[in-house]
């Protein structure tokens, strides 16, 4: 069985790492390059950097930050935010990123996934999905950092992304984001059991047990978190030792 991955996520706005709750109420959490280096040293398996404003000017700044990150870490890292065409992918890979994450642009233009995977390979393309469970229990996808609802269901869109060549799905539950009560394990299990590509769980980490549960109950391949790492609530090495003691295969 492949080892489960622990992935710190750094949401970057104006050159600083920020973190909010339910996608709002942002507060600063530190320099993304220094944090990335720290997590690398602490035993993180991968890193994710997201330019959450993704203005044109911000993307230029972001490419420079990617170059600085690449010079300081020796683990794979994914970058996302504002990626709308192949030249955006090319620029970020040339800056040192290992993978790119596409979200809103792929929902608006699903053929973007085909283009990325045919030019750079499936392993480069992570399709990020921000979804909220409505009052009827349906999981619906959102655009622009959770601001705009769509008619796409989580499960239909995830299946389409896989068919188009996506290498991984990064599913963030907007209901759980920043609340620290655990991941959306029922939806994650449905995704993991119905797709053949890895599923990264995001949204809801607040305790070590939540990571255990998303691996054992949600069948997630990786777990992504932000504030519990940024603010020192959970140490990565200690988390991995705990997971190992609970029967989860992790790299120590």
List keywords for this structure.
globular, 27% strand, 252 residues, alpha/beta
Distance between the termini: 15 Å
Q: Report the strand count.
A: 12
Shape: globular
Radius of gyration: 16 Å
Poorly predicted parts: none
Number of helices: 10
Question: Would you mind describing this structure in some detail?
Answer:
- The chain is α/β, with parallel strands linked by helices and 252 residues long.
- It contains 10 helices and 12 strands.
- An 8-stranded parallel barrel has the order 1-4-5-6-7-10-11-12, surrounded by 7 helices.
- Strand 11 (199-202), helix 8 and strand 12 (222-225) form a beta-alpha-beta unit.
- Helix 1 runs parallel beside helix 2 (56-70).
- The protein is globular, with a radius of gyration of 16 Å.
- The model has no long low-confidence stretch (mean pLDDT 91).
Write the layout of secondary structure elements.
Blueprint (H helix, E strand, L loop, with lengths): L4 E9 L2 E6 L2 E7 L1 H11 L4 E5 L4 H15 L6 E4 L5 H10 L3 E4 L1 H5 L2 H10 L4 E9 L5 E5 L4 E6 H10 L4 E6 L11 H10 L4 E4 L5 H9 L5 E4 L1 H4 L5 H10 L7
Brief digest:
This protein has 252 residues and is of the alpha/beta class.
């Amino acid at each position: 069985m492949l080892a489960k991955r622990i992935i710190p996520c750094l949401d970057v706005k104006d050159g600083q790492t920020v973190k909010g709750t339910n996608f709002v109420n942002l507060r600063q959490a530190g320099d993304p390059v220094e944090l990335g280096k720290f997590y690398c040293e602490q035993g993180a398996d991968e890193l994710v950097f997201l330019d959450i404003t993704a203005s044109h000017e911000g993307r230029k700044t972001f490419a420079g930050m990617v170059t600085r990150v690449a010079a300081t870490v020796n683990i794979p890292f994914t970058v996302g935010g504002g990626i709308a065409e192949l030249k955006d992918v090319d620029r970020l890979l040339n800056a040192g990123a290992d993978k790119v994450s596409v979200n809103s642009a792929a929902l608006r233009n699903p053929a973007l996934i085909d283009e990325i995977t045919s030019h750079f390979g499936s392993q480069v393309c992570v399709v990020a999905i921000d979804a909220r469970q409505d009052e009827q229990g349906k999981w619906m996808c959102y655009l622009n950092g959770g601001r705009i609802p769509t008619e796409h269901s989580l499960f239909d869109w995830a299946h389409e992304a896989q068919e188009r060549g996506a290498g991984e799905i990064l599913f963030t539950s907007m209901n759980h984001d920043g609340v620290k009560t655990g991941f959306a394990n029922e939806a994650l299990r449905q995704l993991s059991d119905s797709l053949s590509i890895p599923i990264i769980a995001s949204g809801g980490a607040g305790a070590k047990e939540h990571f255990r549960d998303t691996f054992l109950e949600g069948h997630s391949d990786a777990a992504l978190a932000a504030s519990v790492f940024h603010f020192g609530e959970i140490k990565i090495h200690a988390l991995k030792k705990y997971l190992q003691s609970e029967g989860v295969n992790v790299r120590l």
